Amino acid sequence: MPSAARSTTPVGIDLPIIEGRYAELADYTVAFETYPEDVNPAPYFVGLPGDACVCEHLGYVTAGQITFRWPDHAETYVAGDAYVAPPGHLPLIAAGTSIVEFSRTADLQQVMAVIGGHLEEPDPDVAETGARS
Questions:
Q1: Which end of the chain is more exposed for a tag (fewer CB within 10 A), N or C?
Q2: Is residue 3 a part of any domain in this protein?
Q3: CATH number of the domain that residue 42 is part of
């Protein structure tokens, strides 16, 4: 059975606002993400349907706080909480947050392609907000 650990999964994203480690496990990708700064990544999702994340995430907050925002409501999770975040959300992440999150690989690849495009050619509005997914 495939498995992954934070300590042995290579760093895939290493920026001042996020360290992300990603391992593919069958049809899913597990993400180990740590956020040293407050992050509002909304600008990085521009270009996806509804300018929001198209993934469903199943996750666990190991430290800090994450809020998922949909057009009609928001849900906040803190250290020790497990969550399911359906598609159509925008996250808002507090400094010091660490999460372990599972997403379907095909869906996550679509999201990461758009985010990667924003990282390669930063939009001035994104640079000003310090945003990231």
A1: N
A2: no
A3: 2.60.120.10
